Amino acid sequence: MKKNVTFKNRTIDVAGDLYLPPNFDESRKYAAIVTVHPGSSCKEQTAGIYASKLAERGFVTLSVNASYQGESGGEPRNIEDPAMRVEDIRCAIDYLTTLPYIDEDRIGALGVCAGGGYVVNASMTERRIKAVGTSVGANIGRVNNEGPAEEVIKTLEMISKQRTAEARGAEPLIVPWVPCENKDAEDIDLREAYQYYLTPRGQHPNSTNELRFISMGSVIAFDAFHRIDKLLTQPLQIIVGAKGGAFKSFQDGKELYERAASKEKDLLIFEDASHYDLYDNPRYVDQAVEKFTEFFGKYLK
Predict the structure, then answer these.
(1) What whole-number distance in Å separates Cα of residue 226 and Cα of residue 16?
(2) pLDDT of 241-261, one tens digit each?
(3) Residue 170 contacts by C-beta under 8 Å, 6 or more apart in sequence?
(4) CA–CA distances in Å: residue 72 to residues 65, 66, 95, 209, 234
(5) CB 295 within 8 A of CB 133
(6) What CA–CA distance (Å, rounded) separates 239 from 120?
């Protein structure tokens, strides 16, 4: 069973889909898992797939839509704000603790792609998260700032000029998350991003493929993994595909595994899976869900 819910992140109404397990009994106490979507995505896409499948296995799950995007509120629209994305997770946990059937000591978090990076970042300081999972988790700051320094600075200069223009009344600059020319890209991540977001495979009206350009200034400077060697101590399950491309989630998964302070941590690699296979391909997603079920079942018991 799925319920549409909202909760507050400061003054913003954040939208979520709350999934309840079979034979749900409101008089019981359940473990809960917050699921967090990638950049450019929405709660109904891959985060919703994981949430619904984990609910079928006995957890209460909450798939959260980022502030300023999808069915969530917030103006201006189409912003990707790492600080708010992390706060969305904290506020989702606030909401869960108000539900009488949630055990506040048995809450976990699971993120996909950039959502994985945000979950990791939130978990370092949000100690109500007792277990952390990532599926092809990526450090969105690294994805957007690892080019030559002069090219990154050039982009930041463009962002600064655009902010000035908009402050003086210019129309906001909206750019696509996934350019149409990626349709025939040689790189597997770029090509499959087009296939997932811009074809019936994963397309959803709440995932608009629109990004307010100036918000990338905050993304470029963000490091999802900063201080994981000291502050990320919760049990950690990392799942990646070895068929890597431009987003390098395979490398991020290995870095996360090597650097995290967690004493209980595991890295599961699907050797023949791509980044986007772990979004919606049942062959891999079902195996990932079984692994996460075992993991969260152990550490949220």
Answers:
(1) 27
(2) 999 899 999 999 999 999 999
(3) 162
(4) 6, 7, 15, 15, 29
(5) yes
(6) 13
